[in-house]
Amino acid sequence: MPMNWIETNTVKVNVPAATWQKAVHASGRLLVEAGFAEPRYIDAMLRTVEELGPYIVIAPGVALPHARPEEGALGTGFAAVALAAPVEFGNPDNDPVHLVVAFCAPDKSAHIDSLSRLAKALGKKDFLQRARAAQSEAELVKIMNETD
């Protein structure tokens, strides 16, 4: 994977989404448009939340929708959507969600590597506040790709 784990073609800021389903769909559409996933992967991400609950809201204000590799993952990729207004996923500890980071990986090893990269980003000082304040796709990409 290149030094930058997320690029401007898979990032959008100020995205309107009235429901968690629309927020997940918006992030999944970016994965599909970039060639990382088949369209059915979006449905699988939605189904995962419906079946297993809002466990994908992994930190205050951050959701990480994903599905199993065999449900349409074509490659390892990330897509981030900063929402125009936060949405409720139903997670009492971490709602409302401001940032949706969808990912897909074609196998278990890539899946674990992807989670590790995201954990490093989330662990950065003031990450969520800075990501929420991003005014452009380029600014959000820069925040997410910072190594320090």
How would you characterize the overall build of this protein?
With 148 residues, the protein is α/β, with parallel strands linked by helices. It has one domain (8-145): Mannitol-specific EII, Chain A, CATH 3.40.930. The protein has 5 helices and 5 strands; from the N terminus they run βααββββααα. A 5-stranded mixed sheet has the order 1-4-5-3-2. A hairpin with a 2-residue loop joins strand 2 and strand 3 (62-63). Helix 1 (20-33) runs antiparallel to helix 2 and helix 4 runs antiparallel to helix 5. The two termini are 18 Å apart. The mean pLDDT is 88.
Helices and strands, with pairings:
Elements: E1 11-15, H1 20-33, H2 40-52, E2 57-59, E3 62-63, E4 77-87, E5 97-104, H3 108-122, H4 127-133, H5 137-145
Parallel strand pairs: 1-4, 3-5
Antiparallel strand pairs: 2-3, 4-5
Helix pairs in contact: 1-2, 4-5
Short note summarizing the structure:
By secondary structure, this protein is of the alpha/beta class. Helices cover 39% and strands 20% of the residues.
Which descriptors apply to this entry?
single chain; 148 residues; alpha/beta; Mannitol-specific EII, Chain A; 5 helices
CATH architectural designation = 3-Layer(aba) Sandwich
Q: Give me the side-by-side strand order of the main sheet.
A: 1-4-5-3-2
Strand content: 15-25%
What's the β-strand tally? 5
Shape: globular
The proportion of residues forming helix, as a percent range, comes to 25-40%
CATH superfamily: Mannitol-specific EII, Chain A
The major pleated sheet works out as: 5 strands, mixed
Provide the succession of SSEs: EHHEEEEHHH
Identify low-pLDDT runs.
Answer: none
- CATH class, named Alpha Beta
Q: What is the gyration radius calculated from CA atoms?
A: 14 Å
Mean of residue pLDDT? 88
